[in-house]
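Task 17 of the worksheet. Students: predict the tertiary structure of the chain below and write it out as structure tokens. Keep your answer in the requested format; marks are given for formatting as well as content.
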Amino acid sequence: SDHMENICGYLMKYTNLVTGWQYRYFVLNNDAGLLEYFVNEQSRHLKPRGTLQLAGAVISPSDEDSHTFTVNAASGEQYKLRATDAKERQHWVSRLQICTQHHTEAIGKNNPPLKSRSFSLASQGSANSPGVQRRPSQNAVSFFSVGHHRLPTGKRVPIMQPDHLVDVREMMSQAEGQQRDLIRSIECLPASGHLTSLDQDLLMLKATSMATMNCLNDCFHILQLQHASQQKGSLPAGTTISWLEPKISLANHFKNGAAQNFPAEINKAASVREEQSIAEPCQLTREPEEINPDEELEDICDDKEDDLGAVEEQRSVILHLLSQLKLGMDLTRVVLPTFILEKRSLLEMYADFMSHPDLFVAIAGGSGPEERMIRFVEYYLTSFHEGRKGAIAKKPYNPIIGETFHCSWRMPKSNAATDGTGSSARSSSEQGTLPKDPDGQAEPDYYTVKFVAEQVSHHPPVSGFYAECVERNMCVNAHVWTKSKFLGMSIGVTMVGEGVLHLLEHGEEYTFSLPCAYARSILTVPWVELGGKVNINCAKTGYSASINFHTKPFYGGKLHRVTGEVKQNMTNTVVCRVQGEWNSVLEFTYSNGETKYVDLTKLSVTRKRVRPLEKQGPFESRRLWQHVTESLRDGDIDKATEHKRALEERQRNEERLRAETETPWCTKYFLKDGDGWVYHKPLWKTASAAQTQQTDSN
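Model answer:
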């Protein structure tokens, strides 16, 4: 390649907290696939102070600034480097990536097949390899127990039947377990000595074994498609293809070790549960269901996500997963290990952003457009703290297409009479004109906020959610498309979409967006921070808000910092400024000079009300994921993984069937509206229809 050039120059290298950054002279040796550094240019003829093998390395521009980047070697060693400017960083990163790709691909291309070498590392080692010093007994066959499944020779392979596909899946699962054992054994070898983890033979073995298993999985997928297409003509409309469940419990896909055999009674019970869940979609109706809030009970689940044990114990699993990712890769289709999951669906997480419903209903009681905009900003900034369950960055379940979540909140009208932070939410005259129900009886002494969410699309993953308070004549409708990307040592999630708050009494609509989220320190203890700029606008009143979620700078600075301002666009006058931390204390300064502090850790949280599992539909979040959640609570990661895989496989099979039969997916509660999604019976439509009916009757 024209770009395979040897480059050299000074870069700053981060050593440790004590020494900090130091200038070092770096040399990229493309021929050897090495990155070397020296104290200075004059000492280049001496032995390098450090050397990294680039084969299998990951080169990652840092998201901290435009100058920093990291080189993560396959051995686990890392160089954190800084160029003088963004242009120089791009030059180094591009050359390093080209060299890395070249030498990584060469590992497989420049070596003979494993069969011809007979796995004999002792006899076939190169002169400059530690393999020449190995004892005869230290070859790969004796060191690693690699099993093989051979098909009978001379026999024609018959057309695959479902049972045969199950047998193939079982054999592949065993092979995957053995392949993971092989990689684990190689990675556990010392970095130096007679048999090292960096030996070229073993690196090639890792690469080829992984490629082989990927190829086999692709072939198995083709067989499943062929089997489904053969049955296409005999399938009645609406039939769901069940996934091919193995006869034995598979090993955890992300855990090293052989398959484990569970008692037959457990397998049978699990099989019955899964068969029931397979059959249920065929009986489902896509007609919207009216949920009676009186059937909902106060939620008693309190699943905090502060357990560090699983994250620390599975560090090798995370390293293996990261080795398969590329910088900027879209993680939408990447199956993540089960132990990093929260015990709730993403749809329920959106509901938890409404955990301060008293602040939500107080928005409508603002005395004027300025106060209503400020109250909305106060509510918006207080919603993120409770949406996170603990300090650890865990991931909620990816909702299955068609999955729904329903809940509601009740709050005494006396509590909702103020905004919860000190200012009046309704005047006494407003409180004295509360509407009555159709029977002429006084309404309950509480407000009800109802919430519904639905996964309306799988690719791309789009969720729609809607909340309303009929008594306050207000509702909010939103759709969110989550786009996640691998950023090196962190993961970024962009929330694409828009929400609209409707205050029908005032004829006002407030459009808003959501910030990006980042999972930082994914190799140690992952934590979440928010970043980016969001805007809130009300076209009718001319008021707008601009809010900045600041990511932590590399040196100094506070975590979770947020700043913002509310202004009147016509006069360009700032009427309120806000600063603080979105998960701690917020400071609001108003145009009259008054200052108010809101301690989010002390704000009262209203528990949501949810129907019991036995009253929920089969596609409601908690019932759909109940076996995964129960297994996670019990600490049984293997069992949780099996239940999760079963749900995901069912979704894939149903998606294939819809594609083959050209059957579009029909949503239940949300309708497509341009680029967005709107609740099928929003309050602004029902209120308008009721008003029209009342006018006609008069």
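Marker's comment: The longest helix spans residues 200-231. The longest strand covers residues 474-486.
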